[in-house]
Amino acid sequence: MDKAIDKTSCIFVAGHRGLVGSAICRRLMAAGFTNLLVRTHAELDLCDARAVDLFFGKQRPEYVFLVAAKVGGILANSTYPADFLRENLAIELNVIESAWRHGVKKLQFMGSSCIYPKMAEQPIREEYLLSGPLEPTNEWYAIAKIAGIKLAQAYRHQYGFSAICLMPTNLYGPYDNFDLQRSHVLPALIRKFHEAKKLGMPEVVVWGSGTPRREFLHVDDLADAAVYLMHHYDDGMPLNVGGGTDITIAGLAALIGKTVGYEGKIVWDGTKPDGTPRKLLDVSRLNALGWTAGIHLEQGIASTYEWFVNSRWVEKGASSMATHQSA
Ligand code: GDP
Predict the structure, then answer these.
(1) I want to staple 84 with a disulfide (CB 3.0 to 4.6 A). Which of 140, 250, 282, 312 is the partner?
(2) What is the mean pLDDT of the chain?
């Protein structure tokens, strides 16, 4: 533990095109790592055990960030439960088994804060995992992710394989999903406020009551923690990664409105669900290891907004607002 990883070590980032994987690649490159190994889904299907094993046998990566997963919101989860369970289980099983078999020095598996019990005490400590029933709408995804954590722990226990698991809180940042039907609240509100401002709309409709509290972590902070922990953490206990503070949805909406420069009204749509009243991770173990989040929410929203306005989500004349708000 605590040994510097050679800058020329071969590091496989599985899932490099997603929100988290792309941030980890940026962080590794900024830190001077020169030998990143990536594959698109078309080049390597992580659900194909044989292909994954051949890949590891040939490429021989030394370190692995396993952040590839089938992800989606409440609607996708409940429509395609078999796909969520099967694909995530297959990715985890294939990558962890091949990594161990082909001598990977260390593997980091990305869990999620949404796999803790639905009614977990707040702030959520790592040991609350598997201490109560899950949120039924995403239990397929949660069961698969919990199996991934258990696989990592089992390989560590039985074979001495150095596998660690991170439990990130709600993430946001560049390359997030801004599709209003599928996205999480932060990107959804960036898009809604931006379009309302552009179209001169007098009000923006925000879901729920505004009272639930959520914690948000910029994905560049997560990537920084991921690289830090690859160096400095080697234990079977999953580790929460968050900023340690939360904010109400009303507070978040006000902050995003201010960043975007929208001056109209916020209207609360009480027909939409609030979800769990609070979701905050206890990050005392992470802080004790010497890492704390660095990107302030206001600053993170500003840079994410800047990314959004220059992204494919904002095309000339395109708007989702009219259809979405009347839906
Ligand atoms: P959760 O953390 O799993 O509940 O996921 P979300 O990010 O989807 O929702 C967080 C909170 O934001 C909930 O209380 C939602 O009702 C609220 N919210 C307000 N407006 C929106 C929106 O436009 N999209 C989403 N996804 N959530 C919204």
Answers:
(1) 140
(2) 94
